Amino acid sequence: MDHNTEAVSKVTVPWILERKLRAEKITCLTAYDYPTARLVDEAGIDLILVGDSLAQVVLGYDSTVPVTVEEILHHLRAVRRATRRALLVADLPYGAYHVSDEKALEVAIRYVKEGGAEAVKLEGGHKRAALIRRLVDAEIPVMAHIGLTPQSVHAMGGYRVQGRTLESATELLADAEALQDAGAFAIILEGMPRELAAIVTQRLRIPTIGIGAGPDCDGQILIFHDLVGLCFLPRTKFVRPYADTAANLRQALAHFREDIVGGRFPDDSESYHWPASLRDQFERSCVAK
Ligand code: KIV
Do the beta carbons of residue 108 and residue 138 sit within 8 Å? Predict the structure, then answer.
């Protein structure tokens, strides 16, 4: 796909819903800046999420909890400038929807108006249903997110796979149904047994997007930096790195440094030149002074 010239058929919320009806998988990735979003979009990935994982993978925080609305907006605008085809979704960070539905609505409207988001994502089960209804009423499509929800790290007592007991699995299925009924157009299932994700996927009309939830979901999402091997956190079981970008970058950086120290960078072909006539003229004028 030529980003500059070719007409691209834009991914929309109805298109995502249609994929489920056709049993066609939905491809999703996070992105946080112009160059990576451009590569993701040009690769034909269907949905780009400016996730609050920005906090850890790009900004160096030790969880997703501290990242702010302003920080997400800043990165969202860069991703917007790079994205032509993919549906662009922005994450509501911790704190943005925990004070009041009004505050959450204001943030979501800023994402759409100032950041160019086409949908928002938020974490949590049935207790988010009322807020999802408000957002949908305001014409903002919502992606829900249940299972291992990283913003609840303190409440969960760590990052733990969810739905491993009959009780918690039943609760997660009920959550998924409540979020669908509230109007969510898709739902991320994170960190749960494959068997549970398969049942939730079968039961819902809206697509499920899995991360650490096995292969039976309607689509899959990964964090861009995990996919390309550019992450400094311990790798989780469900991440398949398709490249070793950190190793490639380390090699390039070491090579660059060695070339400077060894006087090999830059060489003559990487230098600008005078025309010979100017060189003669300049030397004569220096001698004359
Ligand atoms: O913030 C994020 O990147 C996410 C994905 C892991 C789904 O929520």
Answer: yes
Task: Look at ligand 1, atom 3, and give the residue with the nearest C-alpha.
Answer: 51
Of 57-61, 98-102, 167-171, 275-279, minimum mean pLDDT range: 275-279
Q: Tell whether the model's pLDDT for residue 238 goes beyond 60.
A: yes
Is residue 190 part of the annotated active site? The answer reads: yes
Examine residue 93 and say whether the peptide bond preceding it is cis (omega within 30 degrees of 0): no
17 C-alpha vs ligand 1 centroid, how far in Å?
20
More confident residue, 287 or 141: 141
Query: Model's pTM, two decimal places?
Result: 0.94
Q: Is any ligand 1 atom within 6 A of the Cβ of residue 83?
A: no
Distance of CA 213 to the CA centre of its chain: 17
Structure tokens belonging to residue 12: 């929309």
CB of 211 sitting under 6 A from ligand 1 = yes
